[in-house]
Amino acid sequence: MATKSKFQAIKGTRDLLPPETALWNHVEQTAREVFATYGFGEIRLPIFEPTELFARSIGTDTDVVSKEMYTFATGYDSDSVDESVPGRTVTLRPEATASICRAYIENNMQQLPHPVKLYCIGPMFRRERPQKGRYRQFYQIDAEILGGPDAPAIDAEVVEMLMTFFDKVGLQGTTLYINSVGHSAPNCRRGYVELLRAELQKVRDKLGPDSQRRIETNPLRVLDSKVESEQPYIEKLPHIADHLCEDCAANYAAVKRELELRGVIYEENWRLVRGLDYYTRTTFEITAAGLGSQNAVCGGGRYDGLIELLGGPPTKATGFAIGEDRLILSLQESANSQSPTIGYQSLSVYIAWMGDKAYATAVRAAKDLRNAGFSVELPPVAQKFGKALGQADKLGAKYALILGEDEVAEGTWTLKTLADGTQTKLPEPALIEHLRKQL
Ligand code: AMP
Fold this sequence. Notes:
Layout: H1 20-37, E1 41-42, E2 48-50, H2 51-58, H3 63-67, E3 71-72, E4 90-92, H4 97-106, E5 116-125, E6 137-146, H5 152-169, E7 175-180, H6 188-202, H7 209-217, H8 231-235, H9 246-261, E8 267-268, E9 280-287, E10 296-302, H10 306-309, E11 317-323, H11 324-333, E12 349-353, H12 356-371, E13 376-377, H13 385-394, E14 399-403, H14 405-410, E15 412-417, E16 423-427, H15 431-438
Parallel strand pairs: 1-5, 7-8, 12-13, 12-14
Antiparallel strand pairs: 2-4, 3-4, 5-6, 6-11, 7-9, 9-10, 10-11, 14-15, 15-16
Helix pairs in contact: 1-5, 5-9
Adenosine monophosphate binds near residues 133, 135 and 321.
Protein backbone atom coordinates (compact mmCIF):
# COMPACT_ATOMS: atom_id res chain seq x y z
CA MET A 1 0.00 0.00 0.00
CA ALA A 2 1.29 3.46 -0.89
CA THR A 3 2.25 5.50 2.14
CA LYS A 4 1.91 9.25 2.24
CA SER A 5 5.22 10.99 2.71
CA LYS A 6 5.53 13.53 5.47
CA PHE A 7 7.38 15.72 2.99
CA GLN A 8 6.51 16.55 -0.57
CA ALA A 9 8.53 18.15 -3.33
CA ILE A 10 7.87 21.88 -3.53
CA LYS A 11 5.11 22.94 -5.94
CA GLY A 12 6.46 23.22 -9.46
CA THR A 13 9.37 20.87 -8.80
CA ARG A 14 9.37 17.11 -9.28
CA ASP A 15 11.48 14.01 -9.11
CA LEU A 16 12.69 12.46 -12.34
CA LEU A 17 12.85 8.72 -11.86
CA PRO A 18 14.24 5.71 -13.67
CA PRO A 19 13.51 4.43 -16.24
CA GLU A 20 12.44 7.89 -17.50
CA THR A 21 15.84 9.34 -16.59
CA ALA A 22 17.34 7.01 -19.21
CA LEU A 23 15.43 9.01 -21.84
CA TRP A 24 16.75 12.25 -20.35
CA ASN A 25 20.28 10.90 -20.54
CA HIS A 26 19.76 9.75 -24.09
CA VAL A 27 18.47 13.19 -25.10
CA GLU A 28 21.39 14.93 -23.38
CA GLN A 29 23.92 12.52 -24.86
CA THR A 30 22.50 13.11 -28.35
CA ALA A 31 22.74 16.88 -27.81
CA ARG A 32 26.37 16.54 -26.73
CA GLU A 33 27.20 14.46 -29.81
CA VAL A 34 25.39 16.68 -32.31
CA PHE A 35 26.72 19.91 -30.78
CA ALA A 36 30.28 18.51 -30.79
CA THR A 37 30.05 17.94 -34.55
CA TYR A 38 29.38 21.69 -34.88
CA GLY A 39 32.39 22.58 -32.74
CA PHE A 40 30.61 23.36 -29.45
CA GLY A 41 32.22 22.84 -26.05
CA GLU A 42 30.43 22.48 -22.73
CA ILE A 43 30.36 25.25 -20.14
CA ARG A 44 29.16 24.58 -16.57
CA LEU A 45 27.80 27.62 -14.80
CA PRO A 46 26.84 28.56 -11.27
CA ILE A 47 23.20 27.98 -10.35
CA PHE A 48 22.99 31.42 -8.74
CA GLU A 49 24.26 34.78 -9.86
CA PRO A 50 24.02 38.43 -8.81
CA THR A 51 20.41 39.56 -9.30
CA GLU A 52 21.50 42.57 -11.37
CA LEU A 53 22.92 40.26 -14.03
CA PHE A 54 19.43 39.05 -14.91
CA ALA A 55 17.69 42.38 -14.31
CA ARG A 56 20.10 44.07 -16.73
CA SER A 57 20.11 41.47 -19.46
CA ILE A 58 16.60 40.05 -19.51
CA GLY A 59 14.93 43.42 -18.86
CA THR A 60 12.94 44.65 -15.90
CA ASP A 61 9.59 44.67 -17.72
CA THR A 62 9.72 40.98 -18.54
CA ASP A 63 7.62 38.60 -16.45
CA VAL A 64 10.76 36.66 -15.65
CA VAL A 65 12.43 39.57 -13.89
CA SER A 66 9.40 41.40 -12.54
CA LYS A 67 7.75 38.46 -10.81
CA GLU A 68 9.33 35.06 -11.42
CA MET A 69 12.83 35.14 -9.98
CA TYR A 70 13.89 33.32 -6.84
CA THR A 71 15.93 35.97 -5.13
CA PHE A 72 17.73 35.75 -1.82
CA ALA A 73 18.47 38.70 0.38
CA THR A 74 22.02 37.66 1.04
CA GLY A 75 24.97 39.80 0.04
CA TYR A 76 26.90 37.88 -2.58
CA ASP A 77 29.99 39.90 -1.88
CA SER A 78 29.60 40.10 1.86
CA ASP A 79 33.10 38.68 2.26
CA SER A 80 34.59 41.60 0.36
CA VAL A 81 35.49 44.86 2.00
CA ASP A 82 33.17 46.87 -0.23
CA GLU A 83 30.21 47.55 2.04
CA SER A 84 29.08 50.50 -0.02
CA VAL A 85 26.40 48.63 -1.97
CA PRO A 86 23.64 47.70 0.46
CA GLY A 87 21.00 45.07 -0.20
CA ARG A 88 22.72 43.23 -3.01
CA THR A 89 21.02 39.94 -3.66
CA VAL A 90 21.56 36.67 -5.49
CA THR A 91 19.06 34.93 -7.79
CA LEU A 92 18.63 31.33 -8.89
CA ARG A 93 19.28 31.47 -12.63
CA PRO A 94 16.07 31.74 -14.68
CA GLU A 95 18.01 31.12 -17.94
CA ALA A 96 21.59 30.58 -19.05
CA THR A 97 22.35 33.21 -21.68
CA ALA A 98 23.14 36.02 -19.25
CA SER A 99 25.49 33.76 -17.27
CA ILE A 100 27.26 32.61 -20.44
CA CYS A 101 27.82 36.24 -21.42
CA ARG A 102 29.11 37.04 -17.95
CA ALA A 103 31.45 34.04 -18.15
CA TYR A 104 32.64 35.10 -21.63
CA ILE A 105 33.63 38.51 -20.30
CA GLU A 106 34.99 37.30 -16.96
CA ASN A 107 37.15 34.56 -18.51
CA ASN A 108 38.52 36.80 -21.27
CA MET A 109 37.09 34.59 -23.96
CA GLN A 110 37.37 37.46 -26.42
CA GLN A 111 41.01 36.34 -26.74
CA LEU A 112 39.98 32.90 -28.01
CA PRO A 113 39.59 32.11 -31.71
CA HIS A 114 36.12 33.33 -32.76
CA PRO A 115 33.35 32.55 -32.78
CA VAL A 116 33.27 30.88 -29.35
CA LYS A 117 30.68 28.08 -29.30
CA LEU A 118 29.37 26.97 -25.93
CA TYR A 119 26.56 24.81 -24.66
CA CYS A 120 25.19 24.16 -21.20
CA ILE A 121 22.65 21.71 -19.78
CA GLY A 122 20.97 22.14 -16.43
CA PRO A 123 18.11 23.36 -14.24
CA MET A 124 16.58 26.85 -14.40
CA PHE A 125 14.20 28.42 -11.91
CA ARG A 126 11.15 30.60 -12.48
CA ARG A 127 8.26 31.16 -10.11
CA GLU A 128 5.59 30.46 -12.74
CA ARG A 129 2.12 29.02 -12.27
CA PRO A 130 2.81 25.28 -12.61
CA GLN A 131 0.92 23.32 -15.27
CA LYS A 132 1.68 20.64 -17.83
CA GLY A 133 4.98 21.59 -19.46
CA ARG A 134 5.57 24.49 -17.08
CA TYR A 135 7.53 24.02 -13.89
CA ARG A 136 9.33 26.17 -11.35
CA GLN A 137 12.46 24.07 -11.67
CA PHE A 138 12.83 23.07 -15.30
CA TYR A 139 15.72 22.06 -17.49
CA GLN A 140 17.24 23.72 -20.52
CA ILE A 141 19.73 22.66 -23.13
CA ASP A 142 21.30 25.92 -24.13
CA ALA A 143 23.76 26.71 -26.94
CA GLU A 144 25.35 30.05 -27.79
CA ILE A 145 27.73 31.33 -30.49
CA LEU A 146 29.64 34.36 -29.28
CA GLY A 147 31.73 36.70 -31.41
CA GLY A 148 32.75 36.22 -35.01
CA PRO A 149 31.59 38.16 -38.06
CA ASP A 150 28.19 39.72 -38.70
CA ALA A 151 27.09 36.72 -40.77
CA PRO A 152 23.57 35.40 -41.42
CA ALA A 153 25.23 32.00 -41.97
CA ILE A 154 25.83 31.84 -38.21
CA ASP A 155 22.10 32.24 -37.43
CA ALA A 156 21.26 29.62 -40.03
CA GLU A 157 23.88 27.15 -38.85
CA VAL A 158 22.72 27.30 -35.26
CA VAL A 159 19.14 26.62 -36.39
CA GLU A 160 20.35 23.79 -38.64
CA MET A 161 22.13 22.24 -35.66
CA LEU A 162 19.00 22.53 -33.55
CA MET A 163 16.76 20.91 -36.15
CA THR A 164 19.35 18.14 -36.70
CA PHE A 165 19.28 17.45 -32.97
CA PHE A 166 15.46 17.35 -32.88
CA ASP A 167 15.52 14.99 -35.83
CA LYS A 168 18.04 12.68 -34.18
CA VAL A 169 16.01 12.37 -30.98
CA GLY A 170 12.86 11.71 -33.02
CA LEU A 171 10.84 14.81 -32.07
CA GLN A 172 7.54 14.79 -34.00
CA GLY A 173 5.40 17.55 -35.46
CA THR A 174 7.92 20.35 -35.21
CA THR A 175 7.36 23.80 -36.71
CA LEU A 176 10.14 26.36 -36.85
CA TYR A 177 8.91 29.97 -36.69
CA ILE A 178 11.23 32.84 -37.50
CA ASN A 179 11.06 36.62 -37.41
CA SER A 180 13.35 39.61 -37.28
CA VAL A 181 12.96 42.16 -34.52
CA GLY A 182 15.47 44.56 -36.09
CA HIS A 183 18.16 46.49 -34.31
CA SER A 184 17.58 47.56 -30.77
CA ALA A 185 17.58 51.29 -30.07
CA PRO A 186 18.63 53.63 -31.57
CA ASN A 187 18.05 51.87 -34.89
CA CYS A 188 14.99 50.57 -36.72
CA ARG A 189 13.31 48.87 -33.77
CA ARG A 190 12.79 52.20 -32.03
CA GLY A 191 10.78 53.59 -34.96
CA TYR A 192 8.61 50.48 -35.08
CA VAL A 193 8.07 50.48 -31.33
CA GLU A 194 6.87 54.11 -31.46
CA LEU A 195 4.50 53.27 -34.31
CA LEU A 196 3.22 50.25 -32.41
CA ARG A 197 2.71 52.37 -29.30
CA ALA A 198 0.71 54.93 -31.28
CA GLU A 199 -1.46 52.21 -32.86
CA LEU A 200 -1.98 50.52 -29.51
CA GLN A 201 -3.09 53.78 -27.92
CA LYS A 202 -5.95 53.87 -30.43
CA VAL A 203 -7.31 50.52 -29.18
CA ARG A 204 -6.22 50.94 -25.57
CA ASP A 205 -9.69 50.46 -24.06
CA LYS A 206 -10.07 47.13 -25.91
CA LEU A 207 -7.01 45.66 -24.21
CA GLY A 208 -6.60 43.98 -20.83
CA PRO A 209 -4.57 45.45 -17.95
CA ASP A 210 -1.30 43.65 -18.84
CA SER A 211 -1.32 44.84 -22.43
CA GLN A 212 -2.40 48.33 -21.37
CA ARG A 213 0.58 48.56 -19.06
CA ARG A 214 2.90 47.30 -21.78
CA ILE A 215 1.86 50.07 -24.17
CA GLU A 216 4.06 52.28 -22.01
CA THR A 217 6.68 49.85 -20.77
CA ASN A 218 7.28 47.50 -23.70
CA PRO A 219 4.77 47.56 -26.60
CA LEU A 220 6.49 44.67 -28.43
CA ARG A 221 5.40 42.37 -25.63
CA VAL A 222 1.74 43.02 -26.50
CA LEU A 223 2.32 40.91 -29.62
CA ASP A 224 2.97 37.97 -27.28
CA SER A 225 -0.48 38.26 -25.73
CA LYS A 226 -2.63 35.14 -25.71
CA VAL A 227 -5.74 36.96 -24.38
CA GLU A 228 -8.56 35.91 -26.72
CA SER A 229 -10.48 39.20 -26.76
CA GLU A 230 -7.35 41.16 -27.74
CA GLN A 231 -6.50 39.07 -30.78
CA PRO A 232 -8.63 40.89 -33.42
CA TYR A 233 -6.90 44.18 -32.50
CA ILE A 234 -3.42 42.72 -32.34
CA GLU A 235 -3.83 41.05 -35.72
CA LYS A 236 -4.37 44.48 -37.32
CA LEU A 237 -1.16 46.00 -35.91
CA PRO A 238 1.72 46.90 -38.26
CA HIS A 239 4.31 44.20 -38.98
CA ILE A 240 7.92 44.83 -38.04
CA ALA A 241 9.14 43.28 -41.30
CA ASP A 242 7.67 46.32 -43.13
CA HIS A 243 9.60 48.72 -40.91
CA LEU A 244 13.09 47.23 -40.76
CA CYS A 245 15.97 49.45 -41.82
CA GLU A 246 17.76 48.50 -45.02
CA ASP A 247 20.51 46.63 -43.18
CA CYS A 248 18.14 44.59 -41.04
CA ALA A 249 15.86 43.81 -43.99
CA ALA A 250 18.85 42.58 -46.00
CA ASN A 251 20.04 40.58 -43.01
CA TYR A 252 16.63 38.93 -42.57
CA ALA A 253 16.45 38.05 -46.28
CA ALA A 254 19.96 36.58 -46.09
CA VAL A 255 19.09 34.47 -43.04
CA LYS A 256 16.11 33.02 -44.92
CA ARG A 257 18.31 32.26 -47.94
CA GLU A 258 20.86 30.58 -45.70
CA LEU A 259 18.15 28.44 -44.10
CA GLU A 260 16.88 27.41 -47.54
CA LEU A 261 20.43 26.54 -48.60
CA ARG A 262 20.54 24.13 -45.65
CA GLY A 263 17.14 22.63 -46.41
CA VAL A 264 15.69 23.99 -43.15
CA ILE A 265 11.93 24.50 -43.45
CA TYR A 266 10.54 27.52 -41.62
CA GLU A 267 7.42 29.63 -41.25
CA GLU A 268 7.51 33.37 -40.73
CA ASN A 269 5.64 34.66 -37.71
CA TRP A 270 5.56 38.45 -37.44
CA ARG A 271 4.34 38.28 -33.83
CA LEU A 272 7.34 36.32 -32.63
CA VAL A 273 9.15 38.84 -30.46
CA ARG A 274 10.14 36.45 -27.65
CA GLY A 275 9.76 37.18 -23.98
CA LEU A 276 13.21 38.55 -23.26
CA ASP A 277 14.35 42.06 -24.09
CA TYR A 278 17.85 41.36 -25.31
CA TYR A 279 17.02 39.94 -28.73
CA THR A 280 18.03 41.73 -31.94
CA ARG A 281 17.31 40.78 -35.56
CA THR A 282 16.66 37.04 -36.01
CA THR A 283 14.38 35.41 -33.46
CA PHE A 284 13.02 31.89 -33.67
CA GLU A 285 10.86 29.41 -31.83
CA ILE A 286 10.08 25.74 -32.37
CA THR A 287 6.81 24.10 -31.41
CA ALA A 288 6.23 20.36 -31.24
CA ALA A 289 3.35 17.89 -31.08
CA GLY A 290 1.62 16.60 -27.96
CA LEU A 291 2.18 19.56 -25.65
CA GLY A 292 -1.15 21.41 -25.47
CA SER A 293 -0.90 25.13 -24.79
CA GLN A 294 2.75 25.03 -23.67
CA ASN A 295 3.97 23.80 -27.03
CA ALA A 296 7.18 25.83 -27.47
CA VAL A 297 10.13 23.48 -27.08
CA CYS A 298 12.80 25.98 -27.96
CA GLY A 299 13.33 29.70 -28.22
CA GLY A 300 16.28 31.60 -29.48
CA GLY A 301 17.76 34.31 -31.58
CA ARG A 302 20.40 36.96 -31.95
CA TYR A 303 21.39 39.28 -29.14
CA ASP A 304 24.19 41.45 -30.49
CA GLY A 305 24.06 44.10 -27.78
CA LEU A 306 24.03 41.96 -24.67
CA ILE A 307 27.73 41.40 -23.99
CA GLU A 308 28.40 45.11 -24.34
CA LEU A 309 25.47 45.88 -22.04
CA LEU A 310 27.11 43.65 -19.43
CA GLY A 311 30.40 45.52 -19.67
CA GLY A 312 32.20 43.52 -22.36
CA PRO A 313 33.40 44.54 -25.82
CA PRO A 314 30.86 44.87 -28.69
CA THR A 315 30.24 41.23 -29.60
CA LYS A 316 27.87 39.52 -32.01
CA ALA A 317 25.96 36.66 -30.41
CA THR A 318 23.20 34.20 -31.16
CA GLY A 319 21.83 31.10 -29.47
CA PHE A 320 18.89 29.08 -28.26
CA ALA A 321 17.42 27.40 -25.20
CA ILE A 322 15.58 24.10 -25.52
CA GLY A 323 13.00 23.32 -22.84
CA GLU A 324 14.12 19.79 -22.03
CA ASP A 325 11.05 18.92 -19.94
CA ARG A 326 8.76 19.72 -22.88
CA LEU A 327 11.02 17.95 -25.35
CA ILE A 328 10.82 14.79 -23.22
CA LEU A 329 7.03 15.17 -22.81
CA SER A 330 6.59 15.47 -26.54
CA LEU A 331 8.81 12.43 -27.21
CA GLN A 332 6.80 10.40 -24.71
CA GLU A 333 3.44 11.50 -26.06
CA SER A 334 4.03 11.15 -29.78
CA ALA A 335 2.95 7.79 -31.11
CA ASN A 336 6.23 7.12 -32.87
CA SER A 337 8.40 8.09 -29.95
CA GLN A 338 11.31 5.90 -29.14
CA SER A 339 10.99 3.67 -26.13
CA PRO A 340 11.21 5.58 -22.86
CA THR A 341 13.65 2.96 -21.68
CA ILE A 342 16.03 3.75 -24.53
CA GLY A 343 19.60 3.52 -23.37
CA TYR A 344 18.43 2.08 -20.07
CA GLN A 345 20.66 -0.73 -18.96
CA SER A 346 18.07 -3.46 -18.45
CA LEU A 347 18.97 -6.34 -16.18
CA SER A 348 20.88 -9.07 -18.00
CA VAL A 349 21.72 -11.61 -15.34
CA TYR A 350 20.22 -12.45 -11.96
CA ILE A 351 22.53 -14.67 -9.93
CA ALA A 352 20.58 -17.30 -8.03
CA TRP A 353 23.12 -18.58 -5.55
CA MET A 354 22.60 -21.11 -2.79
CA GLY A 355 24.93 -22.01 0.07
CA ASP A 356 28.03 -20.36 1.52
CA LYS A 357 30.42 -22.02 -0.90
CA ALA A 358 28.48 -20.78 -3.90
CA TYR A 359 28.33 -17.27 -2.46
CA ALA A 360 32.06 -16.55 -2.94
CA THR A 361 31.82 -17.75 -6.53
CA ALA A 362 28.68 -15.67 -7.07
CA VAL A 363 30.47 -12.52 -5.85
CA ARG A 364 33.35 -13.21 -8.25
CA ALA A 365 30.98 -13.96 -11.14
CA ALA A 366 29.03 -10.76 -10.52
CA LYS A 367 32.18 -8.68 -10.57
CA ASP A 368 33.48 -10.32 -13.76
CA LEU A 369 30.14 -9.97 -15.56
CA ARG A 370 29.78 -6.31 -14.55
CA ASN A 371 33.36 -5.66 -15.71
CA ALA A 372 32.37 -7.10 -19.05
CA GLY A 373 29.49 -4.57 -19.19
CA PHE A 374 26.49 -6.71 -18.20
CA SER A 375 23.92 -5.51 -15.72
CA VAL A 376 23.88 -8.00 -12.85
CA GLU A 377 21.76 -8.44 -9.73
CA LEU A 378 23.41 -10.33 -6.88
CA PRO A 379 21.00 -11.01 -3.99
CA PRO A 380 22.71 -9.81 -0.80
CA VAL A 381 21.21 -12.55 1.42
CA ALA A 382 20.60 -16.24 0.82
CA GLN A 383 17.19 -17.09 -0.60
CA LYS A 384 15.37 -20.18 -1.72
CA PHE A 385 15.78 -21.16 -5.35
CA GLY A 386 12.11 -20.62 -6.27
CA LYS A 387 12.05 -17.19 -4.66
CA ALA A 388 15.24 -16.22 -6.50
CA LEU A 389 13.76 -17.13 -9.87
CA GLY A 390 10.54 -15.27 -9.03
CA GLN A 391 12.56 -12.17 -8.13
CA ALA A 392 14.59 -12.46 -11.36
CA ASP A 393 11.32 -12.52 -13.31
CA LYS A 394 9.93 -9.50 -11.47
CA LEU A 395 13.04 -7.47 -12.19
CA GLY A 396 12.81 -8.37 -15.89
CA ALA A 397 16.15 -10.20 -15.99
CA LYS A 398 16.96 -11.97 -19.22
CA TYR A 399 18.93 -14.78 -17.57
CA ALA A 400 19.29 -16.43 -14.22
CA LEU A 401 22.74 -17.80 -13.49
CA ILE A 402 22.23 -20.75 -11.19
CA LEU A 403 25.04 -21.34 -8.73
CA GLY A 404 24.48 -24.17 -6.24
CA GLU A 405 27.10 -26.24 -4.45
CA ASP A 406 27.10 -28.81 -7.31
CA GLU A 407 27.69 -26.22 -10.01
CA VAL A 408 30.54 -24.68 -8.05
CA ALA A 409 32.16 -28.08 -7.37
CA GLU A 410 31.91 -29.11 -11.05
CA GLY A 411 32.92 -25.70 -12.44
CA THR A 412 29.98 -25.96 -14.85
CA TRP A 413 27.32 -23.32 -14.42
CA THR A 414 23.68 -23.31 -15.44
CA LEU A 415 22.27 -20.37 -17.36
CA LYS A 416 18.48 -20.22 -17.55
CA THR A 417 16.76 -18.09 -20.19
CA LEU A 418 13.81 -16.67 -18.31
CA ALA A 419 11.58 -15.97 -21.31
CA ASP A 420 11.31 -19.63 -22.37
CA GLY A 421 12.75 -21.57 -19.41
CA THR A 422 15.51 -23.24 -21.44
CA GLN A 423 18.75 -24.04 -19.65
CA THR A 424 22.34 -24.25 -20.90
CA LYS A 425 25.29 -25.70 -19.03
CA LEU A 426 28.52 -23.77 -19.47
CA PRO A 427 32.05 -23.94 -18.06
CA GLU A 428 32.88 -20.70 -16.27
CA PRO A 429 35.35 -19.35 -18.87
CA ALA A 430 32.74 -19.70 -21.65
CA LEU A 431 30.02 -17.69 -19.90
CA ILE A 432 30.96 -14.17 -20.90
CA GLU A 433 31.53 -15.10 -24.53
CA HIS A 434 28.20 -16.93 -24.62
CA LEU A 435 26.32 -13.91 -23.18
CA ARG A 436 28.04 -11.52 -25.56
CA LYS A 437 26.71 -13.55 -28.48
CA GLN A 438 23.18 -13.64 -27.05
CA LEU A 439 22.73 -10.04 -25.85
P1 AMP B 1 12.99 31.13 -22.72
O1 AMP B 1 14.26 31.01 -21.91
O2 AMP B 1 11.87 31.80 -21.98
O3 AMP B 1 13.24 31.66 -24.08
O4 AMP B 1 12.46 29.64 -22.92
C1 AMP B 1 13.08 28.71 -23.75
C2 AMP B 1 12.35 27.40 -23.64
O5 AMP B 1 12.45 26.93 -22.28
C3 AMP B 1 10.86 27.49 -23.89
O6 AMP B 1 10.57 27.35 -25.25
C4 AMP B 1 10.33 26.32 -23.08
O7 AMP B 1 10.44 25.13 -23.84
C5 AMP B 1 11.28 26.23 -21.92
N1 AMP B 1 10.68 26.83 -20.70
C6 AMP B 1 10.63 28.13 -20.33
N2 AMP B 1 10.03 28.27 -19.14
C7 AMP B 1 9.68 27.02 -18.72
C8 AMP B 1 9.03 26.48 -17.56
N3 AMP B 1 8.63 27.26 -16.55
N4 AMP B 1 8.84 25.13 -17.49
C9 AMP B 1 9.26 24.32 -18.49
N5 AMP B 1 9.88 24.77 -19.60
C10 AMP B 1 10.09 26.10 -19.73
